[in-house]
Amino acid sequence: MKKILAIAAFAALAPMSQAAELITNGGFEDSTFSGAFTTYGVGGGLNGWTIESGSVDLINTYWSPASGSYSLDLNGNSAGVISQSFATVVGQTYNVSFSMAGNTDGGGAVKVITVGAGGDHSFSFDSTGKSHGDMGWTTQSFSFVADSTSSTLRFSGNSNNTYYGAALDNISVTAAPVPEPESYAMLVAGLGLLGLVARRKQK
Q1: Fewest CB atoms within 10 A around its CB: which of 55, 107, 109, 150?
Q2: pTM for this one?
Q3: Strands of the chain, DSSP E
Q4: 160, pLDDT greater than 70
């Protein structure tokens, strides 16, 4: 009986297919800039990303990133909008995650952004009590189901924050994990054996 239970447990815990990262330069590390920060506008040099409107600040030494060396202030000289498109499978679920904080220099304590992918989502961060050395980064996430073979992830800053916007880092998009075909077979076999044992015990 213990052996059969072990088989069923193994089937339930069988490895899922590994999800590949779909976003390029999600941590903004693809840069050689070495100063405090630099501003990019439409057509600027934020590798992997399109700056659709406004401007953004690529932050290096000005404050502590969530990880690595760089992060982004979504409001440069004005509220910025950045986007990146990637291949998707119709009907597949995708998981989006990113690190969020806020510029503590002004523009109001609460920073609000809109994130679009399969619909718009609003996120906020309260920078009260935070500092350049302690940004208080939080992880935000949501999921969407692709309705096209190409999807676009878009981050929009809020003009109410003036020059001091939400901070972004560690942007990631991956397909929701799908069990390997072998996992289904093992699970069915394990459950079948459990059912057989249960019937024998009843007899």
Answers
A1: 150
A2: 0.81
A3: 37-41, 50-53, 55-59, 71-73, 81-87, 93-102, 110-116, 120-126, 138-145, 150-156, 166-175
A4: yes
